[in-house]
Amino acid sequence: MQTNCEQSIIALNPTRNPTMFRALFLIALVPALVYGNVTRACTGGRPQPFSVNIEGCSAAPCDLVRGQDVIALIDFTTDRAVTSMTTVATATALGVVTTYPLGSNAVTCNFLQGSSCPLSANEDVTYRLTMPILSIYPLVSLSIEIDVLDQNNNSVTCFVVDAQVVTASK
């Protein structure tokens, strides 16, 4: 006769009960995926991406290291045909709102992964955004709105991330 403890160990053994193990693994994974979402919605009901992965950031505020680039992979679906896109970044710090300079990185279509413009309606897209964090930026907390606009200046996808500019660790 097995004890309750022995029965529990057998039930959780992945080789003895693979279905139970998979279910427990998925239950444990869901909070990690939800916790990893570091973005929030933009105002005005603009469409949100279904996934944003900011390298090196698993919880807000994300650290923006002076003198380094921030890389974000943004997955979204177009809700209409799009011939061209531009990324507009707006930073808000200490009550001041300013456009965040992206330079040539603002030409969204140049940084699509596995697709290119023009895009069809309902097309799944992965966009690789690179944001330079200049070494002259002040050490400050801020929020950054990323809005991808189509050829008519209508939002294709938009999100906000809370961040802080930090110095590089030694």
Automatic annotation (TrEMBL):
SMART domains reported for this sequence: ML (SM00737)
Record protein name field: MD-2-related lipid-recognition domain-containing protein
Any coiled-coil regions, as ranges: none
InterPro entries referenced in this protein's UniProt entry, alphabetically: Ig_E-set, ML_dom, ML_Npc2-like, NPC2-like
Domain MD-2-related lipid-recognition: 39-163
Membrane spanning stretches: 20-38
CDD domains: Npc2_like
Cellular compartment(s): Secreted
Species this protein is from: Anopheles stephensi
Main localization of the protein described in the UniProt heading: secreted
Similarity remark: Belongs to the NPC2 family.
GO biological process: intracellular cholesterol transport
UniProt cross-references to Pfam families, sorted A to Z: E1_DerP2_DerF2
GO MF annotations in UniProt: sterol binding
Gene Ontology CC terms, in alphabetical order: extracellular region
Keyword annotations from UniProtKB, A to Z: Disulfide bond, Membrane, Secreted, Signal, Transmembrane, Transmembrane helix
